[in-house]
Design goal:
alpha+beta; Alpha-D-Glucose-1,6-Bisphosphate, Chain A, domain 4; globular
C-alpha cells in the first residue's frame, strides 16, 4: 500500500520538475489542517498564487499553483509556479510538520512567440530564490512564530 502511495506522490511531484534546493519550514505543534490552511492563506491572499486543483492533494500533502506570468526587462516571458509538500509521515500534531517548497521558473526565449508561447516553447529558468526567501519569512511568522527572531532597533 505504501508503495502505491509513493508512486502516486512521485508522479504528482514530477509535474513540479526537479528542484535542487527545497526551502524547508518546521511548523510549531498544530494539526495538519491548521498548517495547510495557514499555508494556503499566505500564498493565495498575499502573494497571488492560484491553486492548481488538478495537481493538489491535501491527503498526500502536495500543493501546486497554476503558472503565473511576467516579463523580464528584455521582454522575454517568464512563468513561475509554486510547489509545496508536507512530509506527512514525518510529522504529527504534537511535533509539527515539515513543509518544503520551491518556486519553479521557465522562460520563453523566442520573442516570435512572445504573445502566445506554446508548451514546447518554455525551457527551465531555475528557481526564484528571492520569492522563496520572502515567502519563507511570511510563512515562519504564521506557522512557526517561535522561531522568528525579532531584532530591536540599535541592537545587532
Amino acid at each position: 500500500m505504501k508503495r502505491v502511495l509513493s508512486i502516486l506522490l512521485f508522479t504528482s511531484l514530477a509535474s513540479c520538475g526537479s528542484f535542487r534546493n527545497w526551502r524547508e519550514l518546521q511548523t510549531e505543534p498544530m494539526t495538519l489542517g491548521e498548517a495547510w490552511q495557514g499555508w494556503q492563506d499566505i500564498v493565495t491572499s498575499r502573494d497571488g498564487w492560484v491553486v492548481d486543483h488538478s495537481a493538489t492533494d491535501r491527503g498526500n500533502g502536495v500543493w501546486q499553483s497554476r503558472w503565473k506570468r511576467r516579463e523580464t526587462e528584455r521582454n522575454f516571458p517568464v512563468r513561475s509556479r509554486l510547489c509545496m509538500e508536507v512530509l506527512v509521515e514525518d510529522g504529527s500534531r504534537k511535533d509539527g510538520w515539515v513543509m518544503r517548497f520551491a518556486v519553479e521558473q521557465e522562460i520563453c526565449e523566442d520573442l516570435r512567440r512572445h504573445q502566445e508561447p506554446a508548451e514546447d516553447d518554455w525551457s527551465g529558468f531555475g528557481q526564484n530564490a528571492e520569492a522563496e526567501k520572502v515567502l519563507g519569512e511570511r510563512l515562519a511568522r504564521r506557522l512557526a512564530p517561535g522561531s522568528v527572531e525579532i531584532k530591536k532597533p540599535g541592537r545587532q
